[in-house]
Amino acid sequence: MRKINILKAIVDLLWIFSMPIILLIVGFSFAVFFIDLADFNIKINAVNINQNDLLSKVLFVISALNYLLIIAALHFFRKILNHFIRVKIFEESVIKSFQQTGNLLTISGFISLTISIISKIYFEQKITLEFGLNQHLVIICLGLFFLVLSEVFKIAKNQKQENDFTI
Amino acid sequence: MAIIVNLDVMLAKRKMRSKELAEIIGITTANLSILKSGKAKAVRFSTLEAICKALDCQPADILEYTED
Predict the structure, then answer these.
(1) Which of A68, A123, B9, B11 is the most exposed place for a label (fewest CB within 10 A)?
(2) What is the pTM of this model?
């Protein structure tokens, strides 16, 4: 159980550091409509946002808000770890948290993949095909893995209940 | 559930308390209560054997099937 404590410490640290970033993201998402994006050298997913039109601003805000989804997933993951530390493993709240984490990560992965494709076409006028370990695909796979885990835990919970009620 | 546990009836017939039976067959009173209330999902053959031995009865005296 020492490993779970290390994992919890890392996740807690990430959570604490992400707190001020949330405020920054929310504040900047509003402010972006009143400033000139071309003045800043903003780079998202290796794409330079160098135009000051509405689409660039919307893309910027969506990718910033997309980050909030990952932070929300981190929050649910922390909840799961808290349950695991208290050895409350096969519970409905754990299954629900796994499902929420999975849904959030999958949605976030799809959004970031879409933004990446749109911004590549719009800002660099090129369509690229990447093979190998793509960060968007990794996030989508991670989200789907959490969804599979929630299904596995649901089956395990039913089997445990059956075992507990076998006299 | 379609299977009804008539353990209460047999206990009354044998004039035996639940606690006494639980001690004889070696299960907790909480588990015996689960069995009596019909919340149990399954009964081990070893438990059924011990109950039948303690109450001097047949499995059919304890378990009964009814249409839902």
Answers:
(1) B9
(2) 0.76
